[in-house]
Amino acid sequence: MTVSRADILIVEDKDALRQMWRLTLERAGYGVVEAADVKQARQSLRRQPPTVVLTDLRLPDGTGLDVLRAAKALDPDTPVVVLTAYGSVEEAVAAMKDGAEDFLQKPVDPDHLLLALERLVETRQLRRACILMREEYARRYGFPRMIGDSPALQEVGRRLQQVAPTDATVLLLGESGVGKELFARAIHHLSRRRQEPFVAVNCAAIPETLVENELFGHEKGAFTGADGRQVGKFELARGGTLFLDEIGELPLIVQAKFLRALEARTITRIGGTQEISVDARIVAATNRDLAAAVAAKIFREDLFYRLAVFTLEIPPLRERREDIPALAAHFAEKYGREIRRRKLTLSPAALQALQAYDFPGNIRELENCIERACILCEGTTLEPEDLRLPTATPPTGRRRRS
Q: Residue 390: how many CB atoms within 10 A of its CB?
């Protein structure tokens, strides 16, 4: 069986043995990252999350169990194989209890090692294949579930899962209503920062004169009415994720200070002189063409490139119509129970009408449409006239419901 290219982190203090493993794995098509001790392993895990960790048990500054725990703390799904020349039942039990997938005693047969890695990589790829679309993972880990099976949504989900474990800045592109904040929350929940705050700021909803204060806060007496210190959103998101929706609306005068905060990871409150260290992962979103805004001199070019480290373009609903039935069913059940205290379904005619409509307001418009239909519906099945779509024929009278 052939598995797709995967990165393996090798943690081994003996240079010759580490090089031998590296050559073996590279010949098999794997990418390899090396570490000689626990400290280097932790740095590598934070910098580039691997597909599988292969670690010696005895290391100069700790043990392979320290590496295992560090890997699992960043991503519980990371498979870890512990190798040792001092194998014992007690060590094997400790490794398995902490989540090791395998425990092998040196010297390890290369073919045996490759078979073990192939199995682990394949299992991880299957487990991670668009877990955002799988309800059991959403319940288990608490992240937002993406509803739909379209190839376009699956591809966005795969790319999102690749970038989420890193600290890279992410720029979400898409029309209004496609659910950019949902994707931002998914990035946060799949990252090592998931236990820390997720702070969302809608740049378009804040008056231009207050944006700087909202982001950076102020000191007491900074301006008339500043009766006390106010902490800004950057500080509130420390250790977690700061989501800036509609980043294209950020006033040009604030963009320079925002860029400096991104690059230096420090801020200064309005009226203050002390630099404050902030460690927040930035996820930004916009429905505007930022490249055009740069050309029009209303958005800084350097800020644009700093934000666009990793871009994700979320497709509009009209480009993934095959997802409409699942989304509509989800909203019908949700609002049916909230409004009618019972589960509501959609008739085939209603589903056909939904799939024929372009939904310029995307998922937000679809959700509003289904909520409205649940209010208007007199039975247990939503019909086309309940939807009140702009292209639908106005109802001529009520009919008997199922």
A: 8
